[in-house]
UniProtKB/TrEMBL annotation:
It comes from the Bacteria. SUPFAM superfamilies: MFS general substrate transporter. This is MFS transporter. Keywords: Membrane, Transmembrane, Transmembrane helix. GO terms for molecular function: transmembrane transporter activity. Residues 21-409 form the Major facilitator superfamily (MFS) profile domain. The chain crosses the membrane at residues 20-39, 59-81, 88-107, 119-140, 152-173, 179-198, 229-253, 265-287, 294-313, 319-341, 348-372, 384-402. Coiled coil: none annotated. It holds the Pfam family MFS_1.
Length: 411
């Protein structure tokens, strides 16, 4: 306050602070974003295969296209928020996701599936990690880690509650009608909340005037970032881990089913998902005070250790416990990159940098399930692909500790 008397200090921990309303909005956004965009993919594959008789490879290739095209769009989320403001961007993301749900429900031909997945990519870019992180960063600085962690619990909620509700709805009224209903629910619940609660963000950093006086283009920021050691180590490390994490989780039931049975395999997945929520909530209480690169490295190593247990021990309780350990850090691995970027880089570049980081990660983990599946078929078992996942986790733990040369921050 003494340095800038015109910028009163904001108490981000205050219960009445408007930023916590933004967290609630982003929680709801994440519920629909992940429920329809991420976890919903397994529902779409099953339903379209059953209803249309299309091969799984055709439908799955549409999913891969969705992730890759979505990654291209995610790159520009930061500058969209900066140019058009969070309210307009959140509304656009909501409308795109609702339109995608309607389009998927109306699919009758394979080419329509790819068109629907293209619309879904726009919706995913406007309702997922990059949008939520960029939005929350406008209201939070000191409590950003807690705010992002709490908002992203909506992602887990979308998988735990949203997908079962969608499946139940499909059983009662059919796939197309269920998708139309989900789109309608998203519009009815989200649009009024965004219009009422999302206003003009505060100037937490006092850099807006400086940014206007000395603008740096998004292209220049991205070009610099791709040459910066600190940014590259964060991005590559998390890309490797998310590749391993997504590949493992997608194939988890297939691995556990013949080992401990379908019922216990389902329990293990449920425990993993529940621990992701618990880990994110507990971590949110201390995440802003930790050495975040070290916390990331320890999270990577804990997942590697859990994978070692999964591969080598076939005891029911040991496998479920290993899934719990693995799951504890699952949620935090999508929160930590934004906190490291916030801590180490210029605040004015945050939106562009975290959008670029998210896009690179998404391109990488899009291939995780396919590579794990290919290596499983090639080797006749899951030992080879899971050992590859362990190697990637350990390599990432070493890489994340390389900070590079710190860059001066303007905030």
């Amino acid at each position: 306050m003494l340095d800038n008397p015109q910028q009163p200090r904001i108490d981000e921990s205050a219960f009445r602070y408007e930023g916590w309303r933004i967290v609630a909005v982003c929680f709801l956004l994440a519920t629909f974003g992940w429920g329809l965009g991420f976890y919903g993919q397994s529902v779409y594959v099953a339903e379209l295969q059953r209803a249309r008789g299309w091969p799984a490879s055709l439908i799955s290739s549409g999913t891969t296209f969705f992730y890759l095209f979505g990654a291209l769009l995610v790159v520009f989320v930061g500058e969209a928020v900066r140019k058009y403001g969070p309210r307009l961007c959140l509304i656009a993301g909501t409308l795109a996701m609702a339109a995608a749900a309607v389009a998927i429900g109306a699919v009758r031909e394979p080419w329509q599936l790819y068109l629907a997945d293209a619309v879904l990519a726009f919706g995913w870019a406007g309702t997922s990690l990059a949008m939520i992180t960029n939005t929350i960063s406008l209201w939070f600085d000191q409590k950003r880690g807690m705010a992002i962690s709490l908002a992203l619990n909506g992602a887990s909620f979308g998988g735990i509650v949203g997908v079962p509700l969608l499946v139940t709805l499909i059983g009662h009224i059919g796939f197309a009608s269920a998708m139309y209903a989900a789109a309608g629910a998203m519009l009815v619940l989200l649009l009024p909340v965004i219009l009422l609660l999302v206003g003009r963000p505060p100037d937490l950093h006092g850099w807006h005037a400086t940014a206007k006086a000395k603008p740096q283009s998004s292209t220049e920021i991205r070009a610099w970032a791709l040459r910066d050691v600190g940014f590259l180590t964060v991005t590559i490390a998390f890309a490797l881990v998310l590749f391993a994490q997504v590949g493992f989780i997608v194939h988890l039931i297939s691995f556990l089913d013949p080992v401990i049975g379908r019922e216990r395999a389902a329990v293990a997945v449920a425990v993993l998902t529940a621990m992701a929520v618990i880990g994110r909530v507990l971590f949110s209480m201390v995440i802003d005070r930790l050495n975040q690169r070290l916390a990331a490295a320890l999270s990577f190593l804990s997942q590697a250790a859990a994978l070692c247990v999964v591969i080598n021990l076939h005891n029911d309780y040991a496998l479920i416990a290993a899934c719990a350990v693995f799951g504890f850090s699952v949620g935090n691995l999508i929160t930590l990159p934004s906190l490291i970027v916030q801590q180490e880089f210029d605040s004015a570049s945050f939106g562009v940098l975290i959008s670029l980081n998210t896009a690179i990660n998404q391109v990488t983990y899009a291939f995780g399930p396919g590579v794990v599946g290919f290596l499983r078929d090639f080797s006749g078992g899951y030992e080879l692909p899971f050992y590859l996942c362990i190697a990637l986790e350990v390599a990432a733990a070493a890489l994340i500790m390389v900070r590079g040369t710190p860059r001066a921050k303007t905030a």
